[in-house]
# Entry
Amino acid sequence: MNTNAMSQEHIIYLRGIRRQNRTVSFFRYFILIAAVALWELAARLGWIDPFIMSSPSRVWDTIIRLYGDNELFHHIAVTMLETVVGFVLGTILGTLIAVILWWSRSLARILDPYLVVLNALPKIALGPILIVWFGAGIKSIIIMGLLISLIVTVMTVLAGFNEITDEKQLLMRTLDASRIQILTMVVLPASIPTIMSALKISVGMSWVGVIVGEYLVSRAGLGYLIVYGSQVFKLDLVMASIVILCVLAAIMYYCVAYFEKRLIKWRDWA
# Structure
């Protein structure tokens, strides 16, 4: 009797969760569709100047024109390549540096003020230096994206490592576990949520770094289209590039979120 009552309560609870998820999804899409419709309506009724603010229909026409001129996927591919390479390198290097700093508390204390300063430094100020060092090409743009995401990854992952309770590590030491065993069996598995949060932050930071790099030196890419469109007052091109950037950034973010779910399921199963 009690079991049936509990199971019925559980069913009601699950139905409530599904209903809440459907409500959240509905309002997500509703806000997006309403914003696009209002934008288009405002442009057609003259509430805003479509030359300055553009409109969804003009943005769509611009995207179709770029596709017809065989330029759309070329610029997307250039920016995606720069972003993915910078993101992956920033994530790998940032995690490795965080492991090294966790391994040596003294080194972490020595470098802590430098990490804070580097994190606060506007990375765009390094743009001219990177161009001189690495040339006016894709290498400078990738390094710009890497630098912006690197420090954030180091600080976020290191903070996650330091939050692991000393009791768990002490228990491993009493079992004669080595430092590498504590890292691989306790610290890294417990820090997966923190690492994934750092990845989500790094996605956005990598896009920022790459677009800033393309602003400074680029002959292709979505950042180049934004700069070119603003210079020749083709604001439809600017808005179309921004819309494409939003879509690509969202796709990349949800790919990381999907990887996070799979990784957490694997950790729980293991």
Observations:
- Residues 2-44 form the longest helix (43 residues).
- The chain has a mean pLDDT of 82.
- The chain has twelve helices and no strands.
